[in-house]
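hey so i finally got around to running both of the ones u sent me last week. sorry it took forever, my laptop kept dying halfway thru and i had to restart like 3 times lol. anyway pasting them below in the order u listed, first the sequence line then the structure token line for each. didnt double check formatting much so if smth looks off just lmk and ill redo it

first one:
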Amino acid sequence: MISATRYPYSDEQCAHLHGIVCAAIRDAKIKFTPLAYAVFYQAAMNGFSCALSDELLTLEKGKTLEYGLNTLYHKYIGESCINNIALLDDITENLHQGSHKIVTITEQSSAVLDQQIDRLDADDVSAVDLASIAGKLKKEVMTLSVSQYVFMDTLNEAQTHINELKEKIASLQQLVAYDQLTGLHSRFAYDEFLKKAIHADTTENLSLVIADIDQFSLLNENFGFHVGDAILRYLAQKMKQTLGNDAFLARFSGKSFVFVFLNRSPEWVMQRVEKARQAIIYSKILLRSTKQEIGSITASFGIAHASEKESEASLQSRAEEATLLSKHQGRNRITQL
């Protein structure tokens, strides 16, 4: 437990933070991945006395936790990863420039050394002078050689570390961009995609579809959460196979998926969504342990077609409303708004 004498928060607040960590593993069914670790580590590095910590304390356990962690990561850490990559590129460039400068200095020094060596041919140079000049020249050459060797070795080592950091940052960004359970894009990636797509000059038509699995809580109660997770993975792959590259697919929430169609007519989108709905209906899922077949699985769909200059929040709200209408009208159907 985090000690209140070390950090400015009380024991109760520290216990609350600890509870959020446990909820991330238990209630939200997410592993303690670099995403969650990065958020809590960032807060700890600031002594749990920063705005990030205050927002962590207000996170609700349960369905919103994973999205909350994604949001906090993006707000406090994610964008800095991109900035760090740019910074590392600058460091690499500076090191290369420094290397070029050392080479230039070495070449200039070599020219000076050559001039000094030429002076050795002078008739008025005594034996004592020759010995002194030779010693200095030898020392200068060795110093320059060692300096260049040390710098190049440092440069190579720095470049190795920079490459490692870039790989780690890229790996972390990859983890944030994909949902670990289903393999689809994450809610974080969906938010970013929708924001860019809705404001892009090349986007003429945009349709947002939310698919929510019907009576999913009963599946978890009857067969267990591990079966529920398996169903989510299976349906995610089923939708990927059905829609292919026609749509941007992401996990929207615990039992919901989202599709984004670009530059397609409403009629075309409706046909593709109907195909996805039917693919879910005809899915056959068997429990490996007992060979028991799980009953019919269906999903309710809501479609919202973006109007001119509509915001992401408004479009998403209409898609959610359409999905709820499908639920209220008997489930396993598609509603357009």
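and the second one:
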Amino acid sequence: MRARDLGLPLPGETGPHNAITDVPGVEVGYTTLVAGEAVRTGVTAILPRGRAEVHLPCAAGRFSLNGNGEMTGSALLDETGQLRLPVLITNTHAIGPCHRGVIDWAAREHPRVADQWLLPVVAETWDGYLNDINGPHVQPAHAVAAIDAAAPGPVAEGSVGGGTGMNCYAFKGGSGTSSRVVRHGADSYTVGVFVQANFGSRSELTVCGVPVGAQLSDDNPIEDGDWMFPPGAGSVIAVVATDAPLLPGQCSALARRVPLGLARTGTTGSHFSGDIFLAFSTGNVLAESGFPHGDPGYDTLRYIPWNRVDDLFAAVVQAVEEAVLNALVAATTVTGRLGHRSPGIPVDRLVDLVTKAGR
């Protein structure tokens, strides 16, 4: 089930799968780890140019709304405005094994690239409410498996991959995605978004402009129990992809629009939430990074003029909002570590509240 399946009035024209994989070449793969009563975690892999060309750089930029989180490789991303290799998302304490896993995969699949140096992008959100986050459950092999599983087409949502143990607005959250088609003269481009949604307080939740959180407060074990963290704690990672040709600075501008989409779902950005966003463009084929070799040359970037990028900004905002709602709607109730329970959002009640509000 997805948000549009409920008839929610969401703006914008989606791609065929309404997913980040509507951007040509982008692939998504998961490793989901569920074992016993305490393991509820996993790994998500996003390949910007697919498996064969994942080593070719893309123009890229990032933005941190709140830095209580981690995204490795950020310094080089800021320095060069380029991204290559798979992007992985996992839990906070599994950054290390996933980083190692990207290197293992690159050494196997692209040994010439791995002979230089690798600074993979691995991001995280915290799943310690449902998952034994301090246990060594995520291993490099799980990261490799997520990359190997990456494929185009429809993308599973909810409690899968890195989103397996995540909560959103004190409901079960996790992985969500959406896309928008943007016209530029005679050309059409796609903006795709993927979120690992693990943020927000129940009282904040807003759906299609309707504040529903306070009216859905009766089943809230995460915030009403003896849990030590304040409402709104968690994190959110968003990855924005597009085939529109853009400069690195324009990619950063796309990443800066992610919070506007999150705000439509109600969040005010808790200090205890690491909110970090990455955007990349596959619209130019850049020269391979690494040691210089051969005769000196030039890279050429074709890009949409700055005075024509507003429709791309709107696409990011719309797709982020829908990706979060997709993560909420797709997820169902999960019980994990120490018997902690994260309830699935009551879909029928949600639809009734939005309908009664005239939306």
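quick thing i noticed on the 2nd:
The longest strand covers residues 187-200.
anyway thats it, ttyl
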